[in-house]
Amino acid sequence: MILAPPELPPDPPDVLDVQHPSDVLGADGETVADGNLTLHWTAPPACPDGAKVLTTVSRYLSEESRPDEPLAVHGRVDHAADLWTLELVLQRGEHQSRRNLEAGTCDLLTKGAALVVAVHIDAVGASAQIRELETPVVDDVPTPPAAAVEVSRSPPPEATVTVRRPPVRPPPPPPAVGGVVRAVLTGGVGDVPRFPHGFAVAGGVTLSAFRIEGQLDYAPPRRIDHPDNADLGGRFQAVAGTLRGCWAPVQGRFSFPLCLGARVNALQGEGRQGIRRPQTVWSPWGAIALEPAVVFSPIDRLGIFASVGALAAFNRPAFRLGPEQNPIFRVSAISAVVSFGLEVNFSPRNSRPR
Questions:
Q1: Beta strands at 71-80 and 37-42: parallel, antiparallel or unpaired
Q2: How far apart are CA 353 and CA 173, in angstroms?
């Protein structure tokens, strides 16, 4: 829809030596007139003729917009390849202006020429007339009877606006806190004379896949002979305490605690054979404990526990009897320890849905 006439460049200033349009565009073509408007039109046969151009100009003008004084319009249309060009000269008295137009078809070029002429005559009136031409007018549509018209008095439906919000991720679940207790039989080589050792109880707190445990070991009294003199012998017993942290991943009904901690031991030795004045001596020693384990849970919360570990001693107490220089027992720098028993795990991770 055309809402306003196109903006045209200003007319060139008046010149004293005004060429006649026929000297520029040639004298061939046709001449048609409508009142004070005269058109000299030169165009190929495929283009509209001069009368059609004047008719189009009249459509763009109202009755009050006709030119009051003579206006001569000279137009020449040329065609080259796919482009149509128009040289347009408008002359009113001594005043003369030129326009050059281009279009893809001659029909569009002709309408453009008519619009330029109409605007040149009356820009305001042509603009109003163009808006009226662009308004559709329906003349032959029958008006339905009043009884057939139903007016809805219901309010218009309310518009529904859907706002999509990004998905909200649920907060992560709190850590699964639980507990574990264990009772095992123990044994080893290097930390207490003779295998097996005795028994131990342990308990701790579980936090997701991690554990913090404490364990108490007791090795009941056992008698051993001196390795160099069978006439000499002693009796030994031991207690120990261990604090360790474990990482315990779970795979099905199996868990695999890998524990590292510190162990404090107290070993008691007493001469019992071949000694005139037997003495009882307690010797403390400490070690780093590395104890990997495996737990199989045939039913929920109850597991079979087994571990094989190593103790790296900080100090190595030794026990001597009588005149013998070699000790009857000395703690090893590296000791091997084993344990086997039952474990009860109260961690939520150890509970499985039925």
A1: parallel
A2: 18
The half-sphere exposure of 16 on its side-chain side, counting CA atoms within 13 A, is 0
Q: What's the CA gap between 123 and 244, in Å, rounded?
A: 99
Angle at 203 between CA 201 and CA 208, to 5 degrees: 145
Nearest to 22 by CA among 87, 116, 103: 87
> Residue 348, Cβ neighbours under 10 Å: how many?
13
What is the rounded CA–CA span in Å between residue 263 and residue 90? 114
Backbone angles phi, psi at 10, to 5 degrees: -60, 150
Distance between CA atoms of residues 88 and 110, nearest Å: 11
What are the CA-CA distances from residue 138 to residues 201, 222, 248, 337 (Å)?
A: 103, 121, 87, 106
Three-class secondary structure of residue 55 per DSSP: helix
Q: For the segment 44-94, what is each residue's pLDDT rounded down to a tens digit?
A: 888 888 888 888 888 877 776 677 778 888 889 888 877 889 888 888 878
Give dist(CA 258, CA 91) in Å, integer.
106
End-to-end alpha carbon distance in the chain: 75
Q: Decide if 217 contacts 186 (C-beta within 8 A).
A: yes
pTM over 0.85? The answer is no
Structure letter (DSSP) for residue 273: E
Ordered DSSP codes for 283-301? EEEEEEEEEEEEEEEEETT
Query: For the purposes of burial, counting CB atoms within 10 Å of the CB of 17, is it exposed (0-12), middle (13-18) or buried (19 or more)?
Result: exposed
What is the three-class DSSP state of 131?
helix
